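We now fix the convention by which a protein and its fold are recorded. The integers have meaning only within a learned vocabulary of local backbone shapes. The record below shows the convention in full.
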Amino acid sequence: MLTADVQRGSWKVSAILASFMMTVPLLIVIFGGSVGAPAVWVKTAVTGLGQGSGDGGFRRWTARSDDKLLGGLLADGFDEASCLSRYQSAMYRRNAGRQPSPYLVSKLRRQEALQRRCGPGTVAYSNAVEQLRSGESGGLGSPECKYLVSISYSGLGNRILAAASAFLYALLTDRVLLVDPSNEMGELFCEPFPGTTWLLPPGFPLTNYTNFDVSTAKSWGNMLKNKVVAAGDASSATATELPVFAYVHLSHDATDDDKSFFCDEDQRLLRRIPWLVMRTDNYIVPGLFLVMGFEDELNLLFPEPDTAFHHLGRYLFHPANHVWGLITRYHDAYLASAQHRVGIQVRVFGGQPNSPTLLDQITTCTQKHGLLPEVVSGPEPATRPPPGRRSRAVLVTSLKSWYHERLKGMYWEHAAATGEAVSVQQPSHEEFQRSGARSHEARAWAEMYLLSLTDTLVTTGWSTFGYVAQGLAGLRPWVMYKPANETDVPDPPCGRDVSMDPCFHAPPFYDCRHKRWSDTGKIVPQVQHCIDVGWGLKLVPRN
């Protein structure tokens, strides 16, 4: 028999539900059914009303249709039909994310104006291209219009992190960012800047720029080594003495000369070169925080340093409509109604065999930290689960299907010890990475984004795929450590990352401030070493 308090509580919930259900049809009539929220929102909201608050691990979905601009991060006025994800994405996120600083918001608006004023299709851009074609620094180019071309290569996660890094460098140095359109960059993402394009147009005078590498004579490192330029000449060198362009090589094989890019003397000279072409497969943002000349500006842009990619990624990378369709259909069918969503990103390479050790590492990590429930090993529970019991949706992303199948089988063959319902899903399993294949890239981007919509995230160390997901989500993931061998599960199997920001895998090891080789993870407090790549650098909270 129900107590009086329980009866009163049930009556209140029923009254709220009745009021809600009478209001929804009216809203649909008023707004013509185009409110923009996912179709499952109403069902999720009604389900949530009838349930208690539960433990802290279960979050209620709160619609944020009033914040489609993400706190001013995004510019208003885009044609919504051309990029559905730009203004709809907030509806799908339970974690609203961090608020951008007012200074970052104003800086983005100024950058957008610069992109329109100097970008493709303008007289300034045509003059700058002619200047580049002539090979002479003086003359046609406008002093206010300087350019950074970001080369797109390597896997999708690498390309996203590289483009975000290049964009921040463009923000810091007042350059127009132009992204190499190869490798699906024009097909996977919407244009981020209103009224212009960020894609490098055809007819670029440096016809072989995508083949630039560490040996290119015009690379900054090689020009320093061969004394074509001298970083100490920043104030004395005339415009005609400087090259019209320089190639910045910051990929995994960058030399120490290449990494002089992170020194103030080099930056003062690079600022005066009209065209820069950058090639990296790394997230170089932590390195920019080591440059003293950028320190004040970065503090204004990111009072919370660990949010750098979180804000840059949400600003720049909006899935194109065909990718957004993959994301929303999968979300609505498999994730939306779950009270808690757990993302597990398993990075394996195509030639690697299925690993029971890695599977053990996944289950040990997730169950030890309460991310997934343990299972009942004995007889089936005698009592029937109550109606409306808690549910977890587990999203597994991996090239292999084996890990998903084993996890799914575990929760099908055994009841969860907590009594909750656990579903395990995997959108695709390509078996091998197929960078450059359009369908593969679209699915990879969709799965990264789906991971970013989860409430709790488990990633594989060293993986740029996981880095992108955690940054967009605004979550500190549980990172599975790289095992020392193929037979032993690391102890501990995973650890909570110190921040949401990605890791810079190939940082400089030279302290430009004190002119000595040094531990660059101990120069400024907001740049420390990564938990998955010991020599890598990442941004952390100030405290």
